[in-house]
């Protein structure tokens, strides 16, 4: 599985917004209990969509500007992108099958 850990704005722009593939971005924080629960689900999605979609994680404590740019008010929030635009969003815990079903429509 290949999860892109976003560490700066340009990495987000290049790896997610400019990608020719659909992207799923998990906005999370290390102190967030539900984020810890959704982490393994994101890993399952990344494994299932390897080479078909970008799966990325953004630590909101380290990347507050990105969280603000996409109006992430609570975590975990998972945002899907395609062609540089937001195409869907989940807030709170979701199992891998729900996330995968939504992402599958865009790959």
UniProtKB/TrEMBL annotation:
Protein name: Thioredoxin
PANTHER family: GEO12009P1
Annotated Gene3D superfamilies: Glutaredoxin
Thioredoxin domain ranges (all copies): 1-107
Site (Deprotonates C-terminal active site Cys): 26
Organism of provenance: Methylomusa anaerophila
Coiled coil: none
Residues flagged as site, Contributes to redox potential value: 33-34
Family under the similarity heading: Belongs to the thioredoxin family.
Record GO terms (molecular function): protein-disulfide reductase activity
Segment forming the signal sequence: none
InterPro entries: Thioredoxin, Thioredoxin-like_sf, Thioredoxin_CS, Thioredoxin_domain
NCBIfam families membership: thioredoxin
Positions of the catalytic residues: 32, 35
Gene: trxA_1
Keywords: Disulfide bond, Electron transport, Redox-active center, Transport
Domain of life: Bacteria
GO BP annotations, alphabetical order: cell redox homeostasis
